[in-house]
Amino acid sequence: MKIIPKRNYLFLLCMCLVLMFTLMACGKSKKNDNTVVDSNNALNDESNNDVNDNDNDDVDGDEKSNDAVEETDSEEPIEEPEKEPNLFLEKYQETGELPSLAELYKDKFYVGVALAQIDFSKVKKDLVASQFNSLTCENEMKPDAVLDRNATIALGDEESVAINMNRALPAILFAEENGIKIRYHTLVWHAQTPDWFFNVGFKDGGERVTRDVMIARMESFIREVMEYMNTNHPGLIYAWDVVNEAISPGDGREDGIRVTDNRWFEVVGPDYVELAFTFARKYAAEDQKLFYNDYQTYNKSKMFYLIKMIEDLQEKGLIDGIGMQDHMDLTTPGILDYQYTINKYTDMGLEIQVTELDINTTDNSEEGQKKLASRYKAIMTIILNCIERNDSKITSITLWGLSDNRSWLNQPGTPNYPLLFDKDLNPKYSYFGMAMDDSISIAY
User: How far is Cα 346 from Cα 322, in angstroms, rounded to an integer?
Assistant: First the structure.
């Protein structure tokens, strides 16, 4: 759904300004309040802290605040400067010019996009270079794309593996040419890892190797990938998804570890996650961060297992952050649940990266796409407020795809429209929602 130029944004602008000042006023009135969640705007400083733990501090704070009010009663109120309006949509409709998302958020976090080999046409590369400063390979850095079976067999060693990064080279070279950093996705995953990797003689089918041999293969693989990237392309990788999607509460284990179709669990056992992070820490460059990445990180039952696993890794100094995939729809997760999730991981001292953001919708009508834009703006509002109010270390936000027609959510006969650009690479309302344009309403 292509945006049709319009001129009159006065009404929408006024409504947004009224909303903005209302939010500011609410924030001031709550400054010394013990209320945990601000129900007016669904944003808070510490949405899930136990207020009673800070009773004494709160009393002291209230007394100081009252004294300050008494001292300044006779003074003239100080007018706060108005925030410069964000009217990117209006400017685009008038001039065709877009802001750069990377530039807008350069002082806060990386803005990234996931790309596949097919996406490296000139027109797409120009758009990516103008909008993003982080890149994730959709598939080209996953184990089945990197492991080289013939070269591995040629080594003649059951415990050593060989890799080939040729499929990832277009992304690597493009990133280097344009000053873009890369999130490496992913080293250890139950999916998209070839079966032969777990077998005696690296054969299809047949007997599984022993636990000790598989641990050696894991270390060899992680070492080969990290040393290749850090030797041949130093400074390019800023974050590693060391382990992907290892938690599956429905499989019934007490620790929540995924069992179904998980050859890592089958051959190595439940400690494969810790082993992967141990080897990754051993071979990672000093400035590179190690992440655990998963979907539905806001699901309360799954969060219980995630927190336990991550706390164990933190105690051993093996992990830096959590990757929240954030494949969403228009209503789930709820805004308060999303805020709670970020605050919870923030309280753990974790760096947070949104790694695979998209918002599922099959509605490509103007109304449907405006709802999508509102949803993006609401998510960005939560993220920005968690950074500013709760000191959350949110360091990267990656969209899982550049344009709707390339989304993994598309099904035969049922196209999806979850991203920021349409099939012709025109910006959608959702783009302006992510840019926090004042003409986009916020959907709670």
Answer: 10
CA distances from 442 to 8, 15, 47, 104 (A): 19, 11, 19, 19
Contact, 102 vs 398, CB < 8 A? no
Distance CA 269, CA 264 (A): 7
Q: Which residues contact 91 (CB under 8 A, 6 or more apart)?
A: 97
Chain center to CA of 61: 36
Q: How far apart are CA 68 and CA 83, in angstroms?
A: 26
Q: Which two tokens stand for residue 341?
A: 């999730």
Active site residues: 245, 356
Cross-strand bridge partners of residue 357: 399
Q: How far apart are CA 324 and CA 341, in angstroms?
A: 10
State yes or no: cis peptide before 427, omega within 30 of 0.
no
At 11 the three-state DSSP class reads helix
Alpha-carbon distance 189 to 143, whole Å?
Answer: 8
Question: Could you report the per-residue pLDDT of 332-373, keeping only the tens digit for each?
Answer: 999 999 999 999 999 999 999 999 999 999 999 999 999 999
Domains in the chain, start-ordered, CATH in brackets? 99-434 (3.20.20.80)
Helices of type H across 203-360? 211-232, 263-267, 272-283, 300-315, 335-347
CB 244 within 8 A of CB 189: yes
Q: Mind listing the pLDDT tens digit for each residue in 172-202?
A: 999 999 999 999 999 999 999 999 999 999 9
Q: CA-CA distances (angstroms) from residue 149 to 106, 184, 185, 202?
A: 41, 21, 20, 7
Q: Give the closest residue to 394 by CA, choosing from 297, 286, 284.
A: 297
Task: Confirm if 285 and 228 have CB atoms less than 8 A apart.
Answer: no
Residue 35 predicted with pLDDT over 70 = no
Residue with the two structure tokens 């873009």: 180
Question: From the centroid of its chain, how far is CA 124?
Answer: 22
- What are the structure tokens assigned to 78, written together? 């100080």
How far apart (Å, rounded) are the C-alpha atoms in residues 61 and 347? 22
